[in-house]
Amino acid sequence: MVYRIHFTAQDLARTRVAEAPLPLSELGTAMRTLQDRSRPLLFDAWRARVLGRLPAAARMTLSLIPPVGWSPTFLNLPRAGEPGELFEEVRRTPRRVIAEELAAIAEHQPLPPWARGLPEDPALLERLYDGLEQLHASLLAPYWERIGDYLAADRTVRTRQVLSGGVETLLVQANPRWIRWNAPVLEVRMANDAERDLHLTGQGVLLVPSVFGSRSFVDEDALPRPVVTYPVGHDEPPRRLALLAPPAGAVRPGAALAALLGRTRATVLSAVAEHPDCSTKELAARAGVAPASASEHATVLRAAGLIRTVRHRNAALHSVTRLGTALLDSADADSLA
Fold first, then answer.
1. Cα separations in angstroms, 177 against 15, 174, 215, 283
2. Which of the residues 41, 124, 284, 297 has the least number of beta carbons within 10 Å of its own beta carbon?
3. Enclosing H/E stretch for 207
4. Is 323 exposed, middle or buried, given 0-12, 13-18 or 19+ CB atoms closer than 10 A?
5. Per-residue pLDDT tens for 177-211?
6. Average pLDDT in the 53-78 region?
7. Higher pLDDT, 236 or 233
C-alpha cells in the first residue's frame, strides 16, 4: 500500500525542505514514540526519564494519541511557529471540528471513554489542552535547541543534494527505505497502509525531517503545501543518542570552554561562523592553518558544542551552533566595552 504523489515540473520547482522543525507535528510523533517499544537504544532512556514525571492532564491527552492508529489532527498543526502561538491556535479549534474528528476516529478504533463528551465539556477541553502543553514541556522543550541545530545540519546536506543532483536526487535520498521516486510520482509507504493518489496543483511539497519518526507520512491538508516527513540521522546513531541525553543545565562547561582559549582556535570558530557549511579543507584555507590542524580544532569545538559537523559524500561540513554564536557575540560585546 502506497501514497502516490503526482508531480509536475512546477511542483518539482516549488518543493522545499523545512527551514525549522514543526513543533506540534514533532510532538505528535514523539507522543507515539513514547508509547511504543521500538528502537530501544535510541529512546528507552528518554522514555524512562519522562514517563514517570507526566502530570495527570498530560497522561489524559496521551491516551488520545495511540502508538499506532488514528489521532485528532486538530492537536497536530503541521506548520512552523512558536509553540505558544500554535497552542493558542489549537485552543481556538471549533467544537464542530472536534466532534467531527472524534466521530471519524471512532469509526476505526475505540476512543477513551472520557473523550466522548469532549466537544460539549469546556473544562475537559481545557484539561486536554493543558495536557498537550505539559507533554511538549516534558518530551520536546528540554531538547528543542539541540534538535533545531541537528535539523539545520540535515538541511545543509539536503541543500547540497539539490545543488549536485536537483530536486529528484533530494526526493530519492530523503528516505530510501520508505520513499521511492518513480518519475513523476513519489511513492510513500505509509504506516497505516493508506493507499491514495494525490495530484499536486503546482504548489509542490514541504519535506520535513523528524527526529522521532522512523517512517514517512503525508499530510495533504497542510498549508501552504502538503507535507512529507522523513527520519533524520538514521545513519548517525551516536549523534541521535546525544540529542536526547539529559539536558545539560547541570553540566559544568568550564573544562570544555577552557580548551577554546587561544588565538588559532578562536580564528577557526570565527571562520566557521562567517562561512557556514564549509568543508575542512575550506576551513583550513579560511583560518590559515593546515587541514590536519583545522580538523583537530574542529573536533574540540564540536565536543564543546560550539559547532556541528555533518558528512556529505567525502566531505565534513561545519557550521556554528547557537552556543557558538552566543560565545562569539559575547566576545564581540566585551571587545566593545
1. 20, 9, 8, 34
2. 41
3. strand 206-210
4. middle
5. 888 999 999 999 877 666 889 999 899 999 998 88
6. 90
7. 233
Same domain assignment for residues 48 and 110: yes
247 lies in some domain:
no
Give the pLDDT of residue 267: 85
35 and 120 fall within a common domain: yes
Q: Are residues 186 and 151 in the same domain?
A: yes
What is the count of structural domains for the chain?
3
Q: Is the pTM of this model over 0.90?
A: no
Long-range contacts of 219-223 (CB under 8 A, 24+ apart): 219/25, 219/78, 221/73, 221/78, 222/78, 222/79, 223/79
Give the up-direction half-sphere exposure of residue 333: CA atoms within 13 A in the CB hemisphere.
6
Single-letter code of the amino acid located at 19:
E
Q: In the structure grid, which three cell numbers stand for residue 286, read together?
A: 579560511
Whether 75 is in a domain gets the answer: yes
Specify whether 56 is located in the same domain as 80.
yes
pLDDT digits (tens, 9 = 90+) for 286-327: 888 888 888 888 888 888 888 888 877 778 888 888 788 877
